[in-house]
Prior knowledge:
The structure is a homohexamer of 137-residue chains. With 137 residues, chain A is an alpha+beta fold. Chain A has helices at 23-30, 63-78, 83-86, 97-114; strands at 2-14, 39-51, 81-82, 118-125, 130-134. Chains in contact: A-B, A-C, A-D, B-E, B-F, C-D, C-F, D-E, E-F.
Amino acid sequence: MVYITRREHFNAAHRLFQPDFSEAENLHVFGKCSNPNWHGHNYILHVTVKGHVNPDTGFVVNLKELSQLIRHRVIDKLDHKNINLEVDFMVGRLASTENLAIAIWEELESGILDLGGTLHSIKVEETENNSVIYYGA
Amino acid sequence: MVYITRREHFNAAHRLFQPDFSEAENLHVFGKCSNPNWHGHNYILHVTVKGHVNPDTGFVVNLKELSQLIRHRVIDKLDHKNINLEVDFMVGRLASTENLAIAIWEELESGILDLGGTLHSIKVEETENNSVIYYGA
Amino acid sequence: MVYITRREHFNAAHRLFQPDFSEAENLHVFGKCSNPNWHGHNYILHVTVKGHVNPDTGFVVNLKELSQLIRHRVIDKLDHKNINLEVDFMVGRLASTENLAIAIWEELESGILDLGGTLHSIKVEETENNSVIYYGA
Amino acid sequence: MVYITRREHFNAAHRLFQPDFSEAENLHVFGKCSNPNWHGHNYILHVTVKGHVNPDTGFVVNLKELSQLIRHRVIDKLDHKNINLEVDFMVGRLASTENLAIAIWEELESGILDLGGTLHSIKVEETENNSVIYYGA
Amino acid sequence: MVYITRREHFNAAHRLFQPDFSEAENLHVFGKCSNPNWHGHNYILHVTVKGHVNPDTGFVVNLKELSQLIRHRVIDKLDHKNINLEVDFMVGRLASTENLAIAIWEELESGILDLGGTLHSIKVEETENNSVIYYGA
Amino acid sequence: MVYITRREHFNAAHRLFQPDFSEAENLHVFGKCSNPNWHGHNYILHVTVKGHVNPDTGFVVNLKELSQLIRHRVIDKLDHKNINLEVDFMVGRLASTENLAIAIWEELESGILDLGGTLHSIKVEETENNSVIYYGA
């Protein structure tokens, strides 16, 4: 079993807030991250796939195909977008890094099986100090 | 003459658009950066100050004081904010990295003189691939 | 289960030496790291916490609270300090990166439970080439 | 149990191709990575060793000895070399990052036991976007 | 006057050698960099353009156009190639980082004028420890 | 004229203090950097040399020779040392990053002339947020 990781980027706006909370409660819980006028990040995404090495190619999965899958299903929907308002797979979810990692897992899991690998983890870095990893349910 | 650089960060939302342009023209010129729902970045700011070394301190300027000045005049106004809507020193300016660097220069120039140094350059990194430096008018 | 990581920094002096060894033995085992006049590093600390995502906040733990805990219990005691002479939780321990990671785990484990998460790992980077991870006993 | 990681570098040329394939098939599967005139990378290698902390030294293994082992068995054979043509432990293997990680594991496993530790993982970064981890068979 | 920098990448093979030298002389001057079987690098290229900010766009030059120019004239010719054998603008030149920076300047200078800016510098990083800057003749 | 930069590292202890000041004055001016028990950093040094490209080698200067010069005259004296107590070229100077950059310039200037180049700048990074550049008197 070998683990292979592809790194991709997206730049997006978001806001942390709970619609059931008052503005004061949102400010208390989320601080400056709840600014109603949005803020944003250069997010870094690491998709790790595990599998056996194909003896014909030396690959777990073809990284060009993996990159295309990630771009089609995830990056194109997030890059230069507002995560709260414009991303279909984030509708109804709080736009936290945790929820983003879980949602990206759900977008990629089946497609990676089609490429011949198994999704192992989704890592999302929101800033150079804050990051999240999700290994599936 | 010695040059000293302080690095700071801010995370902000912005949008590139020219109010005199139609949406189609904005899209043509600015591409996905003109998304009306905003996007954002982890901006990195490098402030470089030049001066002679004070023999009593070994410093060009006191970096703690320089950092406080940058935070008070620049970072507190930009961090977790919408550059187009909420930043007093960007009112009436297109929110490009170029204009941001010029505006930050204007905010810091006099305060750095008060600290005993001379502002040499403002570098703003918008992404790991795109950055701007301004050395003054 | 989601894993969230907070990165923090501290700059400290230390020295590797075993008080039961002669200077020659210390030099043989620890090389230049045993210099009696100390040397130092810009340490980078990664604290990883695991837990379920709170549906009200989208968080495993509140990163602002986690960062405050780490600063209060760990960074304030290590930053700009001599690890061998001044850090209460390193008394009687060799100041290796391994022991530092174990001691930081012990300082943070209970406080992270109070925040609603479970400490998963402590990673300490001593230089860009040398790092240690501890997952608990 | 503590995990310690040593980072090393090597710069090498390689080419992805399957001798059983035609040039057209190689181009289809490996794309520009199959260029017959070679291309190359600044590879980054992370060797992670696990073990108990020796109370006399505070170490899992002595990093100076670990670094010498890695250099002697791996780096000296790969650095400024052609991976397809000149590296004894890659003979008969496709020069993919996956196979490189597996081969480096085999070169280091026994030597690390001799140092008193257990090899935990080999991570090879081919570019800042592509990397592989191997944890053994 | 504002300075804007675009960062791009290419992975290539090369070899340092002087055809007028014997193999022994090449080995003496260039060391392991003269390996006849090639080695390679992940090169990082920084193209810095200076100019006045266009009041209609907030740009010195349009970074999308600058990136396309760099890719068309430079990256597509170098990426996954052998610098000594396959790059038209390096024919007859020793494949050092210095000569690469000069040659890339010559490829880009006129095209950047067409974009409305002036080429200020070409920086080529061969490794994280070795880099070259060229500001023109 | 081409500019070539070599990056090197050293890990050292230091303390900012002015022997003419009282402890209270030192604490006021230098803050936690004046801790009498020392602290330390992973310093990064960038030495930039300018010159014409030698047509026989493609080099401004031979980087292997430049690296050896820097190691012999600078790194060996600073690495794993106490800058205030053990470094001959820092005797009688406040151990600030500014003074360190100036002193390293003085150590290297003549030796770089002997290699056929001209020293252009010394950059010392004390932390990822604080750095100094010196271009000579």
